[in-house]
Amino acid sequence: MASLRFSVTFHTFLFFSLWVVEAHTSRKLISTKEQEVQNNSHLLKDGEFEDPTLYMFFKIDDLKKGTKLPIYFNKNDLRKVPPLLTRQEADLIPFTKSKLDFLLNHFSISKESPQAKAMKETLVRCNYKAIEGEYKFCGTSLESMLDLAKKTIASNADLKVMTTKVMVPSQHTINYALHNYTFAETPKELVGIKMLGCHRMPYPYVVYYCHGHKSGTKVFEVNLVTDDGKHRVVGPAVCHMNTSMWNVDHEAFKVLKIEPRSAPVCHFFPLDNIVWVAK
Ligand SMILES: *[C@@H]1O[C@H](CO)[C@@H](O)[C@H](O)[C@H]1NC(C)=O
Ligand SMILES: *[C@@H]1O[C@H](CO)[C@@H](O)[C@H](O)[C@H]1NC(C)=O
Ligand SMILES: *[C@@H]1O[C@H](CO)[C@@H](O)[C@H](O)[C@H]1NC(C)=O
Questions:
Q1: Mutation test of ligand 1: which of 11, 42, 120 has the most ligand atoms closer than 8 Å to its C-beta?
Q2: How many structural domains compose the chain?
Q3: From which residue to which does the signal peptide run (predicted)?
Q4: Is 20 near ligand 1, meaning CB less than 6 Å away?
């Protein structure tokens, strides 16, 4: 059984995070190609520096029926979900850092605000070229995300979407808290699958940042259940088999208490991520 991972965290580095915002002035905002910083201060309870989003990582040895892990599947804060643009609308708006001043003005966002900083981070991240062995792009509309996903991993193959779903019996409401979950079944490896994880980025309209690795990744479909049987989760999980090129300070290594770059790192996906898979 996995031990509980109460980690004292002042930064959150998650390469699947959704919001790039600074949580506290004393926290350094560090961002690399693989990492993003998430403002989770609203999730901290009673001054505990316990960051629930870190309960997404697990070790490859945990990936078997019967393993129990504390996991926090976040709820989308609907107030924070910006409008979804059609491709025609999105294509009329520049999407490059060199136009940041114009964009801030266009969306009435003050230059010094956290939102402006987050927008800049998003534009910078979206303009990174994929490094060797990686897929990477941003979709500013669902149509463009689908086209790019097809072009990137599917060619002529069928593309499927996987998302993480939390299910409760009909008379219950979902309690979005940290729960202990047990793998109810042997995780099913999706062999020969190419995948892209798409994460919503902080931006005045919906922008997805999608990335994936050409090799060295195993994709699984997992089925988890809480001890009381009231919460079931079905969704994708991914294991990065070769972490030798990761930043040594990657939070995953700390959370999992493993020697940096020494072992595979696996993670589940937040509820509002879109995972594209193709044979
Ligand atoms: C981080 O989140 C907290 C709570 O929601 C908020 O008060 C604070 O302004 C946020 N910080 C930034 C830099 O957005
Ligand atoms: C998970 O299980 C452990 C050990 O059984 C227990 O100490 C912990 O409080 C549980 N955590 C939650 C969030 O229920
Ligand atoms: C991991 O990746 C590095 C860099 O691409 C490579 O040199 C190394 O051989 C890989 N290790 C394994 C076990 O595949």
A1: 42
A2: 1
A3: 1-23
A4: no
DSSP state of 82: P
Residue 1 in domain: no
State which of 10, 11, 21 you would mutate to test the pocket of ligand 1, scoring each by most atoms of that ligand within 8 A of its C-beta. Answer: 21
Compute the distance between CA of residue 52 and CA of residue 100 in angstroms, rounded to an integer.
32
Q: pTM for the full model? A: 0.75
Give the Cα separation of 240 and 235 in Å (integer).
17
Q: How far apart are the first and last CA of the chain?
A: 33
Q: Which domain holds residue 236?
A: 6-278
Reduce the DSSP state of residue 35 to 3 states and report it.
coil
Q: How many residues does the chain have?
A: 279
- Cβ(180) – ligand 2 distance below 6 Å: yes
What stretches of the chain adopt beta strand conformation (E)?
13-14, 36-37, 57-58, 68-72, 134-139, 159-162, 165-167, 178-183, 188-189, 194-200, 208-213, 217-226, 232-240, 265-268, 274-278
Q: Which of 84, 36, 92 has its CA nearest to residue 203? A: 84
The residue whose CA is least distant from atom 3 of ligand 3 is 244
Ligand 1 centroid distance, CA of 202 (Å)? 13
pLDDT score for 42: 33
> Model confidence over 167-222: pLDDT tens digits?
999 888 888 888 999 999 999 999 989 999 998 888 999 999 999 988 899 999 99
Atom of ligand 1 nearest to the CA of 22: 13
Query: What local confidence, expressed as pLDDT, does residue 35 receive?
Result: 32
pLDDT-flagged residues of the chain (< 70)? 1-53, 76-79
